[in-house]
Write a structure and sequence with these properties.
Elements lengths: L9 E3 L25 E3 L15 E2 L2 E2 L3 H6 L5 E3 L6 H8 L4 E8 L1 E6 L6 E4 L8 E8 L3 H10 L4 E7 L5 E7 L5 E5 L2 H7 L1 H14 L1 H5 L3
Antiparallel strand pairs: 1-2, 3-4, 5-9, 6-9, 7-8, 7-12, 10-11
Helix pairs in contact: 2-5
């Protein structure tokens, strides 16, 4: 839970060919030598998504998002299994308030041999580049801790701007080797996998979530 404790994180500079426009004390080309394509960034920055001032990396959450999470003012864009009341109820013990939402430029991709999807950047042939889902609101800090533990290390929190210009956090998928060209279907998941998946979530919550939620 380093992101909730205000740790400085890293951001994978995807799709930029090793180039990133930075604001503040660093402007221009950022040579990512010896970092495996990762760099610790300071100050505010402008990246691929035009985000500035607050950012989220694999290891940390900076800017005003920490305060928003702790104050219950950070919303989550859910595009996969967290769209389902059965899954939310199993994990959180309740179904938070929510509404339909979408994010342009991304898609919920099928992952090889997995029933759940990953959010990846959309290409020109992928559903017009629009990921649909729901916006979860009113999440407590305890909810965020559970959801962060539920999403494994292959998912990275990041801020996004929704189609209606609202801002939220979401979990981006960071691996590329399992991503398939097909777009994930929530309807197909509901028919083929939802009951068993929700039961797995209930079992996980019994064994893991109480411990997670008690971390100071």
């Amino acid at each position: 839970m380093a992101w909730l404790d205000g740790a400085v994180g890293r951001d994978v500079l995807e799709g930029t060919g090793g180039r990133e426009v930075l604001a503040g004390d660093r402007i221009g080309r950022d040579v990512l030598e010896g970092t495996g394509g990762r760099e610790v960034l300071g100050g505010d920055w402008i990246g691929r998504d035009g985000l500035r001032g607050d950012w989220i990396g694999r290891d940390g959450l900076r800017g005003d998002w920490i305060g928003r999470v702790r104050a219950g003012r950070a919303d989550l864009f859910a595009y996969g299994t967290l769209q389902f009341a059965e899954v939310l109820g199993a994990l959180l013990g309740r179904v938070p308030e929510h509404r339909p939402a979408a994010v342009a430029g991304w898609r919920a991709a099928c992952l090889r041999r997995l029933s759940y999807p990953g959010l990846v950047t959309a290409d020109a042939v992928a559903d017009g580049g629009l990921a649909t889902g729901i916006l979860l609101t009113g999440l407590s800090e305890a909810d965020w801790r559970i959801l962060d533990a539920y999403e494994d290390a292959e998912y990275d929190l990041m801020p996004v701007e929704l189609a209606d210009a609202a801002r939220a956090l979401t979990f981006r998928y960071t691996r590329s080797d399992l991503v398939l060209p097909q777009t994930w279907s929530a309807a197909e998941f509901a028919v083929r996998h939802l009951p068993a998946f929700a039961e797995q979530c209930r079992s996980w919550r019994i064994t893991q979530a109480p411990v997670v939620s008690e971390i100071p």
